[in-house]
């Protein structure tokens, strides 16, 4: 049976799109980043309608020549902070909205979040236990319809990750992993895993050798057996070269 890594075919590095607006990038600049990344083998993108850069990213993507060949990791939640329960219908509506906004037929990885207000494992684990069947049915329908290929949970905690990975239809975990944040490292060696924040959110600030630092951080994450890709916030074509190296 083909492994999920081969089946999904995510690029080794994924383009994180969260900071485009914060960096005051133009549509042309974002398109240049997208094209430069694709030329260097970075063909998977991570996006979310929660990011203030989302409209800029989606518009730039639609104008890029490689858009038909990009794979997508999309962040969505159900239940959201204000919700009392999981809703398969609401999550499906969110997926449909993303497909339309991104101009694609299928999301490769649905990054799924179970939220509460405030975030806490007691409420979230109760939701998981109480609505397990509805969650599994929703994921099955989304996959059978061709709207998504896989579901990776952003767990907020290791204990939640250990429980959610047991749901039928949840294919892996997406979480922080870097030299300083290693709490999810065992999971990255046990289950399909996508790494967020490989540089530990600003490691390169003041670096004397940023390219070497990127290389070292990427290699650290890649040593984890089941890590499929790591999401990098790339904000210029020059950074693309360092990450693709």
UniProtKB/TrEMBL annotation:
A matching Pfam family:
Aldo_ket_red
Q: Which superkingdom, per the lineage?
A: Bacteria
Q: What range(s) does the NADP-dependent oxidoreductase domain occupy?
A: 12-215
User: What InterPro entries would the database entry show?
Assistant: NAD(P)_OxRdtase_dom_sf, NADP_OxRdtase_dom
Protein's name in the database: Aldo/keto reductase family protein
Q: What is the lineage of its organism?
A: Bacteria, Pseudomonadati, Planctomycetota, Planctomycetia, Pirellulales
